[in-house]
Each structure stands twice: as C-alpha cells, then as structure tokens.
Write a structure and sequence with these properties.
Blueprint: H1 3-11, E1 15-16, E2 22-24, H2 27-38, E3 53-58, E4 64-68, E5 73-79, E6 86-90, H3 93-102
Antiparallel strand pairs: 1-2, 3-4, 4-5, 5-6
Length: 109
C-alpha cells in the first residue's frame, strides 16, 4: 500500500467530503473493493485489467480513484465506470485531497 495512504489511514479510517462523498474509504472497504476488482471472475471481458490499480475512494457517482501500483508511482487516477477510461486526477495523495475536498463531484474531468 502506498506510504501516503498508509499514513492517512493510521490517523483516520477514511475521509468523508462535504457532501458525504467517500473521498478515502475505510480500510475494510479498500480491501473488499480491491479484492472484488482484482478477482478474475468479477468482470470477465468487460473492463481493462484492474491489477495495476489500488482503489481507495470515489466521487459518489460511480467513478473511483486509485493509485497505480505497477509501475509504482504517486499519481492518482480516476476510473470512469461508464467507459472504462482511466484519467490522471492528481500528482499524489495530498494533491488529491486538496482537489477532492475543494471541488465538486466532477473536479477531475
């Protein structure tokens, strides 16, 4: 797990935005969601592989945010659940938190 996310989760068990958005999920949800997305039986042929991603939050409308594990990098990407695109959203967790907590639900588009 990325060091920035580990440090945040040691201080809090997730982070809720102003309108109830799960900016950072609790640890148990991070584990559950990633196990689901990494399972080869969950979405066969529907989406590109999720193996390189570690999902940790969402925008409240279905899009989810993830670190890239392979190759490891601090950037945060948004996964669009409607078209399976993966868009750059922030340079690291701190940048993501500033943007997510200050913006509306579509701040990353």
């Amino acid at each position: 797990m990325p060091a920035q996310l580990t440090a945040l989760l040691r201080e809090t068990d997730g982070l809720i935005g102003e309108y109830g958005t799960d900016v950072v999920w609790p640890l148990d949800r991070i584990v559950d969601q990633n196990l689901l997305f990494w399972s080869p039986d969950s979405f066969p042929g529907l989406y590109m592989p999720f193996d390189p991603l570690l999902f940790f939050g969402d925008n409240g409308g279905g899009d989810q945010f993830a670190f890239v594990l392979t190759p490891e990098r601090p950037d945060i990407f948004a996964w669009n659940h409607e078209n399976d695109s993966r868009l750059w959203a922030a340079r690291d967790l701190e940048d993501y938190l500033h943007r997510a907590l200050a913006g509306d639900g579509d701040w990353y588009r």
